[in-house]
Specification:
Elements (H helix, E strand, L loop, with lengths): L10 H7 L6 E5 L7 H20 L4 E5 L8 H13 L5 E5 L8 E5 L2 E6 L2 E6 L15 H8 L1 H13 L5 E6 L10 H10 L1 E6 L12 E5 L7 H12 L3 E5 L3 E2 L2 H7 L1 E6 L5 H7 L1 E3 L2 E5 L2 E11 L2 E17 L12 E2 L6 E3 L6 E7 L4 E5 L2 E4 L18 E8 L11 H11 L11 E6 L9 E2 L2 E2 L4 E2 L4 E2 L2 H13 L19 H6 L1 H31 L4
Parallel strand pairs: 1-2, 7-8, 7-9, 9-10, 10-23
Antiparallel strand pairs: 1-5, 3-4, 5-6, 11-12, 12-21, 13-18, 14-20, 15-16, 16-17, 16-19, 19-22, 22-23, 24-25, 26-27
Helix pairs in contact: 2-4
């Protein structure tokens, strides 16, 4: 037991492990000669799995392996390719024993594979983990990864042992994308949930069997009838995840014409969201903490010259540390984001999930967005707004927007034909997640096909969009509550590396020579006393 509860499992994880009635085998791929941060992460992984085993009745079995330790280059390439298809990415470890010595490199795989019966799931120990910030030690990454070990392994085991998966519907009928831009999203939904399409413009009621609905970047106006269907789904305790672009501002238009006009899409969702407790504003967020884009800055020899330049309209959003969904989350990649305000809604608890950095601002619309502005450095003094909300979680029993608008005839028909009587207020607690950017859960494309969710091809980096999506879905529909394990927060306690190197000889002397000297002195004193005691006078 520690003040951080490092070795204490959360109650939902204990309950979940009590449902493990068959053997779970786990291959930990992080093995071999590791640097201190990775070695500590491996040891913590072993410790957490040993704790899991105590509550799972001895059904958790693990082994440490280094899959690329043996074999030739072609064999290692095949192994790495197989792991990549599972979503496991290796990393190169650069090690140096002492100052002045030559550095060595080796491939390490900070991941594990969890197997149960005929199924298996990968666990990437570093994926989506908040990277070390400016002024922090590089070792902070591994401490943040330790925070999430319990959740990552518990989530994988929970998915493997659960027979009946939650059902999630993907909303259609208002211009939502259904192409390669949502490939990663649809694939994730199919692999982890019971999944289906829901055409809001044609179904009379939303099926009661669904646990959650996800709305991704609608383009067309919602009718009152469509909003009523969403409203009644929420009144019955269904979860609603909304990824909404309130304004028209697209990267494609910008690349073709070098400028584009940002203006209201007219989705007609403002009254519904306002009634539930949020307002998506008619503005665009600019942030100095942003992704870069490749831009043509000139020509040389008749060929265009590209340069990576920061683009404030692509904010890298920070997760709120106050929510299990976003705690210790790496930045989330967004495009042409709007700001969100929370408004009064009786009985509804509101939690900020995503927000800007301390150096941001909003731009009122309609507004002309031009790529030419990127070539002139932005004045940091103009970015004075801090932590602008972009994603919000709403929880509680909601009141229906249509409580005083529903005709008796329609109410009776819903009850008679579809066994769904009209509800003026929520009969169960519901959860609504609203994010003011539809691109958060849409992947980019390359000539070879869809890219992983959160991957920016301009800077060749994968942000935590996939983890954010996974956590939102898990929080919305998973009754086991294992997401609570993300609440852990370990502190980093490091030795000063420079002081350690400078004082190495001194502390080696203290730890090796001094104990030996103490033993020798004690021995001499003992011999002296013994001689005095037993030496008879002549």
């Amino acid at each position: 037991m520690t003040s951080e509860k490092r070795f204490t499992l959360t109650a939902p994880v204990k309950r979940m492990l009590g449902r493990v009635h068959d053997q779970v085998n786990i291959d930990i791929l992080l093995e071999g000669n590791l640097k201190s941060g990775l070695r500590k992460l491996r040891n913590s992984t072993e410790a957490i799995l040993q704790e899991f085993n105590e509550y799972a009745g001895g059904n958790i079995h693990y082994r440490l392996i280094d899959p690329v330790a043996d074999g030739d280059d072609s064999t290692r390439a095949l192994i790495l390719d197989s792991l990549a298809r599972m979503g496991i990415q290796p990393m190169t470890q650069v090690a140096q024993s002492k100052k002045g010595e030559e550095q060595s490199q080796r491939i390490v795989i900070p991941a594990a594979i969890v197997k149960y019966k005929e199924r298996e799931l990968p666990v990437d120990l570093l994926k989506g983990v908040q990277r070390s910030r400016e002024g922090q030690s590089p070792e902070q990454l591994y401490v943040n990864a330790e925070d999430l070990l319990e959740y990552k392994f518990a989530s994988a085991i929970d998915k493997l042992i659960t027979d009946t998966l939650p059902a999630i519907g993907y909303l259609m009928g208002n211009g939502e994308p259904l192409d390669f831009r949502v490939y990663s999203l649809i694939q994730y939904l199919r692999e982890n949930y019971r999944f289906g399409m829901v055409r809001l413009d044609s179904v009379p009621v939303i099926p009661a069997q669904l646990n959650a609905l996800i709305m991704v970047k609608p383009l067309l106006k919602f009718s009152d009838d469509e909003k009523r269907k969403l409203d009644q789904f929420v009144m019955r305790g269904g979860s609603l995840i909304c990824m909404i672009d309130n304004l028209y501002a697209e990267t494609d238009s910008l690349q073709k014409g070098r400028e584009t006009l940002a203006y209201d899409r007219g989705l007609n969702l403002d009254d519904l969201l306002f009634h539930y407790g949020v307002r998506i504003n008619q503005d665009l967020v600019e942030d100095m903490q942003c992704a870069s884009i490749n831009l043509v800055v000139g020509t040389q020899g008749g060929k265009p010259q590209f340069q990576l330049l920061p683009w404030p309209y692509y904010p890298l959003l920070d997760g709120s540390p106050s929510s299990w969904i976003t705690k210790n989350l790496d930045p989330v990649f967004s495009k042409f984001t709007n700001s969100i305000d929370t408004v009064k809604a009786p009985g509804i608890r509101k939690t900020i999930l995503l927000q800007t950095s301390p150096n941001a601002r909003t731009v009122s619309t309609p507004a002309l967005i031009s790529l030419e502005t990127i070539k002139t450095a932005s004045d940091p003094k103009a970015f004075q707004q801090s932590d602008i909300p972009v994603g919000v979680l709403l929880e509680g029993k909601f009141q229906s927007l249509y409580a005083n608008r529903m005709s008796t005839a329609l109410s009776d028909s819903l009850a008679d034909l579809y066994q769904q009587p009209f509800l003026k207020s929520g009969e169960k607690n519901a959860r609504i997640i609203v994010c003011a950017d539809g691109d958060l859960v849409m992947n980019e494309l390359s000539e070879r096909g869809p890219l992983p969710l959160g991957f920016s091809k301009d800077i060749n980096y994968t942000f935590a969009n996939a983890e954010f999506l996974s956590n939102c879905l898990d929080y919305s529909v998973n009754p086991s509550g294992v997401l609570e394990a993300r609440s852990k927060d370990f502190s980093l306690r490091l030795l000063d590396p420079e002081k350690t190197e400078d004082e190495r000889s001194f502390w080696q002397f203290i730890n090796i020579v001094v104990p030996l000297g103490v033993v020798m002195i004690c021995g001499l004193v003992f011999q002296y006393i013994r001689k005095r005691k037993y030496n008879t006078p002549s």
